[in-house]
Amino acid sequence: MPAAAPKHAWVRPYLTRLVISDFAAAAVAATVAYLVRLPEGTAAAAGFSHHYVPASLALPLLWLMALSASDAYDRRILSVGPDEFQRTGRALLVAMAAVGFASYALHANVARGYVVIALPLTAALTVGGRYLVRKALHRARVRGSVRTAVVAVGDAESVADLATRMHAESYIGMRVVGACIPRRELTDSAALQCLAEVGVTPLGDLDSVVTAVSRSQADTVAVTSSHEMTPRALRAISWQLERTDADLVVAPGLVEVAGPRLHIRPLTGLPLLQVEKPEFAGARRVVKGLADRAAAVFGMLVLSPLLLTVFFLIKASSQGPAFFQQTRVGKDGREFTMWKFRSMYVDAEQRLADLVAHNENSDGLLFKMRDDPRVTSIGRFIRRYSIDELPQLINVLNGTMSLVGPRPPLPREVAQYPSDVRRRLLVRPGLTGLWQVSGRSDLSWEETVRLDLRYVENWSLGQDALILWKTASAVMRGSGAY
Q1: Which of 29, 60, 78, 192 is most buried, judged by most C-beta within 10 A?
Q2: CB atoms within 10 A of CB 281
Q3: Each residue's pLDDT tens digit, 97-129
Q4: Nearest to 360 by CA among 443, 477, 438, 266
Q5: Could you read off the pLDDT of 212-248 as tens digits, one per residue?
Q6: Would you give the end-to-end CA distance of the chain in angstroms?
Q7: Left if phi > 0, otherwise alpha if psi is -120 to 50, otherwise beta: which for 255?
Q8: What are phi and psi for residue 341, nearest 5 degrees?
C-alpha cells in the first residue's frame, strides 16, 4: 500500500500551480479584452493603448488579490467540493467593485466594453484552469501518491464504514491507516474481523489517540460514532491533539446530509448542528422544471440528426419498432411510459426468465448481465454510450422525468421497496443522476440506492449542473454501461 504523504505536502505545490493558472487566466483575458475592444491599427488604438496597456498588465495582480480576499486559496476548500469555484465567483464581484471604485476615485474613464470582456472571461478561464489543476491532483491521489493518513476513532462498524467511503472516493486523498476503538471491541473477534475486511489495523482504545497518531504518523484524526464517545471524551481528544500537528475532524451520524443543509448554531457555548429539511417543492423546483423543459427542447433540436440516424439503423438491423416503451414509476409513485431506443430483440422480456440464474446483481432487485444475449449489435453500441436513453427527452418535455434525478424504477422493483427506499419517489426520476456518473451498471443495488437517496435529500441546481457536466465525461468513457 502506498505510503501517505507528509502532512499537507500537496498544499504548497498545489497552491503554486493554482497561482500560476489564475495569473495566466487573467493575463489571457486582459490580452483578449485589449485586442477585441480596439484592434491594433484603428484610429483610436493609440489613445486606448496609452490608458489600457498598464491596466491590462495590472489585471493579473488585481485578480490574484481578489481571489485571496475571497479566501479562494484557503486550504480547507482546496480540491474538494464546489466551494473553490464559488469563491471564484465571489472574487469576480470583488474585482468588479475594486475596478468601479478605482475608476471613480481616479476619475478614470474605463471603457465598459473592456471590463465586460476582461473580468467575466478571467473568471471563466480561472474556473477552467482550476478544474484542470484539481483533476490532476485527483488522478495523483487515485494512484496513491498524494494521500493524507487518517486515524479513525469510534466503534469498529463506524470506522469500517468511514474507511470504505474514503476508499471508494479515493480522489479526496484520505486513507484510514489505523483505528482507536472501544476497549471492549479490542477483544471482540467480530469487531476485529470488521476492521480486517477493510484493511484497517486497531492501534489502541479511545484513550490511545495521541499514541496512535505518533505510531502511524497520521495527519488527521477522524472521530466517528461510538457509545463511549461522550462530549467530555471528545473535548479531551481535542486538547491532547493540541500537542501534535494532526487535524481533528468529526464525522456526524447524518452521513448522507450534504454541507449546504448543515449549519452550526451556537447556544451558550454549545455548538448545535442544525439540519435543514430537504426541499421537495417551491421556487427552485419551478426553476428546475422550466430549465428541464427548455433543455429538452434544445437537446432534441441539436441531436435530431443523431436521433434520426439511430432510428433508421435500428429499423434496418433487426425486426421490431425503433422505440421501446416501458412502464416506470415516477414522482409520488405515479406510473408513466418511459421512452428509449430499442437495444434488445423484441422477445427480450419473454427470454428474461431463462436468464435469471445469470444475474450478476445478486445483492438487489435489478437484473444485470454484462454479456446479455438479448442485446442487438446496434444495441450494444448505443447502450455503451447511453444513446438509447436520449428519447427520454420526450419524458422530460412532458414532465414525467427530469434531466437529473434518481434512476426511474420498474413497478416490480417498487413493490419490494422498504419504507426508506421509497423516498426515491419524492422527486421526478432523471435521465441522468449520481448513479450515472458514479459507475452506472457497475454499482451494486445498495450503492445505487444510497446515491439516489443522497440526491433526493440534498439536490440543488448547482449540483444538477455539475452532474450534467460529469455525465458527458462518463458517457464518453463508456464505462459501467452494458
Answers
A1: 29
A2: 9
A3: 887 777 766 666 666 777 888 889 999 999 999
A4: 443
A5: 998 888 888 998 888 888 778 888 888 888 888 888 8
A6: 32
A7: alpha
A8: -75, 140
